Amino acid sequence: MRIVWLIVGLASLVLGGLGAVLPLLPTTPFVILAALCFARSSPALHDRLLDSRTFGKLIRDWRTHRAISRKGKTASVLAMALSLAASLVLAVDLAVVGLQALAASAAAAFILTRNTST
Hints:
Elements: H1 2-19, H2 28-41, H3 43-50, H4 56-65, E1 67-69, H5 70-89, H6 94-112, E2 115-117
Parallel strand pairs: 1-2
Helix pairs in contact: 1-2, 2-3, 5-6
């Protein structure tokens, strides 16, 4: 079972890294999932992720306070808004834009209602 947790953890970390540069692909949930998976499969990778300058604080804030930084909230909501705007500019089918707006609204509501870390 450890190998399954390790594979899911690595896949989540890759998706989290991609989420840092791709709109509508979230970073935070995938990194948190990777930390959970590594805790069950590889203590060394788990510790390395927690010590990471990029992701360590994000994971610790979520674990201790269920909090997302103001910068993270701003970046997330801005990326979602820009993605919606790009869809409108590119004349994507309105049904698709509607679904995108619904998903982005739900994600933004979740993000904005979490505690804010410093």
